[in-house]
Design a protein that fits this description.
Layout: H1 3-11, H2 19-23, H3 27-30, H4 36-48, E1 56-60, E2 65-68, E3 75-78, H5 82-88, H6 100-108, E4 118-121, H7 126-129, E5 141-142, H8 143-154, H9 158-164, H10 169-172, H11 175-189, E6 193-197
Parallel strand pairs: 1-4, 4-6
Antiparallel strand pairs: 1-2, 2-3, 5-6
Amino acid sequence: MHNDKYMRKLDTLGQEKNELSDLLADSTVHAEHRTEDHLAALKKPVWAAGIPNHLDIIHVGENHIHILSSSLETLHVIPNGILDLNHQFNLRRAPNQRQIALCIKWLSCRLPPTLQTFACIGRGLHALQQSAIELEQDRYCLREDFLLFAQQLALQEFHTFAANSPSKPVWVQEIIALHCVILAGLFKSGASKFMPHTLESNSLTGLI
């Protein structure tokens, strides 16, 4: 589905504590001073979790969004996370009040222009992992599959998410915002797929 056509569909919907976020909280100030060795050390637990080293990484936290390039040269920080997106774009409100297309456009303007095929780390990805979507090589979610999945969830009330996932009330509130980040990443990079991952953050303690 063409990006513009998909965005027009989303426009009709709304008239226009993640530990890893805590560990990365100071990255906004210090990102420019990261050395290559430090960034390499940061990515080791990510690779150990099975994320291929040729992928860029987008981590979506409560207060920040972090993008680690596969080249290890940069750590890009967007100082707005799930909480900000939910508030700024009404993403926790009823489906017809959510400004999803506007959120995606806003994020696209802030993602690095060098973004390539990526792995996305975020708690709300449990919903995708528990869905009927078949992952390519048991790893990658194809772009077209995710567009349809995100559109279906964008039409649902949050109490529907909670009913389907009663044991995960926290990340249920993050699903729509997380999907906006992924969609912005897919549109920005032009990637045909991405890798969803719910990496635990304790392996990064002390690195950031």
